[in-house]
């Protein structure tokens, strides 16, 4: 008999399940709005030209394939820290930042969760936005941390419930870890304004909470790398210690290469040295040392002024296409006089939009119109194109009436 005979079958991953259904659909009209990856106007993945150039340069330089140090490729992690914290970051100048190359954003969150579990007071809880990226809870729970929720989204306005959020932060035990989406909140597309970030920081400072920024979309949201890093830099300027999980999956289109970084900003450089030594132990236990290839690609781009400038162009192209799709979708719904207000489509930002469609409408749009989205009504804006946007707008109009 198998020792695993009693292992219960886990439920299928909702997003992966959706893509299986999409692939099986034979309709020519089918549209995939589930996918969390950029697509061009032809619905194709896009390899950034700077990535191709960096790959060519790496290939031609005949590199070897030795192990990296535990903390990763230094030319990459240094440039990644500068990218997210800013070229004039006082924390970097004062050696108060430690950076570890990670298995993309997920690996950075995992490294952080395991480090915090060991070194924050026993019983420290983690607060996640409601709703949030589905994997957050898994990651923190797997590291042995208890995850709770803070109010974030207001279904009535399809926007931020700031008062609710601030109240949750006030009610939580002092010194809690608060996971904040640095920009382009997944799944809602709803970000605080700069003034709202200030109010959030005020409460978090009073409560001595620890901000853990998840930054999976820097430059991909607004098209401007600095603007999308506002919240992180603002909290650090105010004197917060914090963690940042940084992903290069979306902004460099390096999804499968798993390029990321985990940063910790501490009060002093002496503390940073100790923190660094302990994160190294955690990372050693999980991955020994990180993968080289994607970090080399990212390092080439980040450290070459010409490639960096070209990358910024591509970021504007990707975010620009998405912003354009938002405007066009809203305009069509207004023209069709689809019941309801559709301003939230353009007010939200980043890869995703929370449409406000209910589960029954999501099911109907799938079965009647071959349009696939997650059950909570979230659509990936990257799945829209000038080719399918009329069909999508008419289908939304149909299921909403
Ligand atoms: N955080 C959020 C909010 C995300 O949306 C994602 C990507 N879906 C990630 C982290 C991590 O992605 P990756 O591990 O591919 O970098």
From TrEMBL:
Its cofactor is pyridoxal 5'-phosphate. In eukaryotes there are cytoplasmic, mitochondrial and chloroplastic isozymes. Keywords: Aminotransferase, Pyridoxal phosphate, Transferase. Pfam families: Aminotran_1_2. PROSITE patterns: AA_TRANSFER_CLASS_1. GO terms for cellular component: cytosol. Signal peptide: none annotated. One of its GO terms (molecular function) is pyridoxal phosphate binding. This is Aspartate aminotransferase. The gene is aat2_1. Belongs to the class-I pyridoxal-phosphate-dependent aminotransferase family.
